[in-house]
Amino acid sequence: MYKVFFKDSVFLLTDDKNLLTGEAYRLIHNNFNSTKTFIQKLLEIEDKIIAIIYGEDTEELCSIFKSCFTYVKAAGGVVRQEDQLLVIKRFGLYDLPKGHVESNESIQECAVREVQEECGLQELQINAPLTDTFHIYCRNNSWFLKKTYWFSMHCSANQTPSPQKEEDIEEAFWLPISEIETAKNNTYLSLLEVFKKITN
Question: Domains in the chain, ordered, with CATH?
Fold first, then answer.
């Protein structure tokens, strides 16, 4: 199953017919045009919704969903230092450093670069892939689907983060893992998936 977030709403792309119940918006995928129309209509709804799209092949369904948008890739880092987590604040919300993949770099190189640029940390090393997230956004009247690749990382000790102000980052700091609920209560819906991986 794939989860695709849009503001406070979520699309679930699934091959499990048992999910086609309840009060969620539901569609059984038959053809591209009807599925695209279904998606476009739901993007106009301002209320928080859950939309379930069923298909026998979730990989094919994800490809069809992706083709309804301009698809972009991003990467970010989840940096832990002992019992602390590197977080940023942007527009008053807790966030994690991430950014778009440039044409001349790998996903891993992008993740390291973005953490360095947004938080001013050095000597970063990737430990392992953590998870991937999808979210939809609108810019200049065009719809985008962003896939973000997240990696767990570590860095040399005793570094003080410095926020990249030109990227509207208000703060960059070490948050005690014991206080992670504070971040989870004031963050983006898609990032909750990342925070779950940290605390599991």
Answer: 2-66 (no CATH), 72-199 (3.90.79.10)
